[in-house]
């Protein structure tokens, strides 16, 4: 049995933040083995994009930026590393010249994670990655999902392909990976190619809160709706960094003006305390468009917020 004390993050009071090899949240690097409760991992894949490449560098950028994160949540007081075993379990294997092979490799990687009893928090990579992740994590039953994004990702095809960064919320429904009654899509905005960009979700009963609706109803009402829809069953969280206004997160492949504030996302994620979060991803972080590094810092902070929610969920199941 793994000793939780051996998995404490590097202490910045002893080893400076700028020193040694970067890992997610300065956790210990470890292979996928049973006994790890939460695995922080990267998916350096961006072959599903139709515009600007670059999210393949997201995992390395967020690892570097996450050196700044400390150990204790400032509001809830959650100490995730005291509640469960957390490790950086590396990156999913990728074939950089073959999208379809890469998708199969990602799915196999997350199946190995699930079989080991680990709950993953992944940093992408473009927003294709939830498709193979959910194929692994939700293979035995559909789950709820909180999808925070500027885009609905419900297109049937893009550029003649059915698995890409604009289709995962359609494929997940068709493959019975998500329960449409327990779906919330938050933050949708921006120009569209056509009705096919969003209509599928309305037709299937997704609970959609566009950014304009979010502003009209207010954060507290949105949080109440999110928690009511997600309920107490298992759910997955998919956070596209382009849900955030590019003033605060410019490092992304498809920026859309007028987005959510990072503060709003912090409070929304914190409201999920006690729920059964089985996995999560933070996608579309592209350091090449992030000259100040603030996008990677924001993603690292969101990773810690998600970790604290997941750690309480792990504690609750014991």
Question: Which key terms come to mind for this protein?
Answer:
10 helices; 318 residues; alpha/beta
Topology:
Layout: E1 38-43, H1 58-65, H2 80-83, E2 86-91, H3 99-115, E3 119-124, H4 130-137, E4 143-148, H5 168-174, E5 178-188, H6 199-203, E6 207-210, H7 211-217, H8 219-230, E7 235-240, H9 262-270, E8 277-283, H10 294-317
Parallel strand pairs: 1-2, 1-3, 3-8, 4-5, 4-7, 5-6, 7-8
Question: What does this entry look like structurally?
Answer:
It is a single chain. This protein has 318 residues and is α/β, with parallel strands linked by helices. The chain has one domain: Ureohydrolase domain (Arginase, Chain A, 3-Layer(aba) Sandwich). It has 10 helices and 8 strands. An 8-stranded parallel β-sheet has the order 2-1-3-8-7-4-5-6, sandwiched between helices. α6 links the parallel β5 and β6. α3 runs parallel beside α4 and α9 packs parallel to α10. The two termini are 15 Å apart.
CATH fold description: Arginase, Chain A
Share of β-strand residues: 15-25%
Number of strands: 8
Summing up helix and strand content along with how strands pair, one would put the structural category as alpha/beta
Arrangement of strands in the largest sheet: 2-1-3-8-7-4-5-6
* Shape assignment: globular
* Main sheet makeup: 8 strands, parallel
Query: Please, how many domains?
Result: 1
Report the CATH superfamily. Answer: Ureohydrolase domain
Q: How helical, in percent, are the residues? A: 25-40%
Quickly give the CATH architecture. Answer: 3-Layer(aba) Sandwich
Oligomer: single chain
Distance between the termini: 15 Å
Count every helix, treating DSSP H or I runs of 4 or more residues as helices. 10
N-to-C SSE series?
EHHEHEHEHEHEHHEHEH
CATH class term: Alpha Beta
Radius of gyration, CA atoms, in whole angstroms: 18 Å
């Amino acid at each position: 049995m793994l000793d939780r004390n051996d998995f404490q993050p590097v202490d910045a009071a002893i080893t400076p933040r700028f020193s040694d090899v970067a890992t997610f949240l300065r956790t210990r690097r470890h292979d996928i083995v049973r006994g790890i409760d939460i695995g922080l991992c990267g998916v350096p894949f961006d072959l599903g994009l139709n515009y600007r490449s670059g999210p393949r560098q997201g995992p390395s950028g967020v690892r570097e930026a996450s050196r700044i994160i400390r150990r204790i949540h400032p509001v809830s007081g959650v100490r995730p590393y005291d509640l469960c075993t957390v490790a950086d379990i590396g990156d999913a294997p990728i074939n950089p010249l073959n999208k379809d092979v890469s998708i199969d490799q990602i799915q196999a990687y997350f199946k190995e994670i699930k079989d080991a009893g680990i709950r993953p928090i992944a940093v992408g990579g473009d927003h294709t990655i939830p498709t193979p992740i959910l194929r692994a994590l939700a293979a035995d039953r559909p789950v709820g999902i909180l999808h925070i994004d500027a885009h609905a990702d419900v297109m049937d095809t893009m550029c003649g392909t059915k698995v890409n960064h604009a289709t995962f919320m359609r494929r997940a429904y068709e493959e019975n990976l998500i329960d449409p009654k327990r779906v919330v899509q938050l933050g949708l905005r921006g120009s569209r190619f056509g009705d096919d960009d969003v209509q599928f979700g309305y037709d299937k009963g997704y609970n959609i809160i566009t950014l304009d609706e979010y502003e009209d109803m207010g954060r507290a009402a949105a949080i109440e709706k999110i928690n009511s829809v997600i309920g107490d069953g298992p759910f997955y969280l998919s956070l596209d960094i382009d849900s955030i206004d590019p003033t605060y997160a410019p490092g992304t492949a498809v920026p859309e003006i007028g987005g959510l504030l990072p503060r709003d996302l912090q409070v929304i994620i914190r409201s999920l305390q006690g729920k059964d979060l089985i996995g999560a991803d933070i996608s579309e972080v592209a350091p090449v468009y992030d000259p100040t590094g603030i996008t990677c810092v924001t993603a690292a902070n969101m990773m810690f917020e998600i970790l604290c929610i997941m750690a309480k969920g792990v504690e609750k199941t014991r």
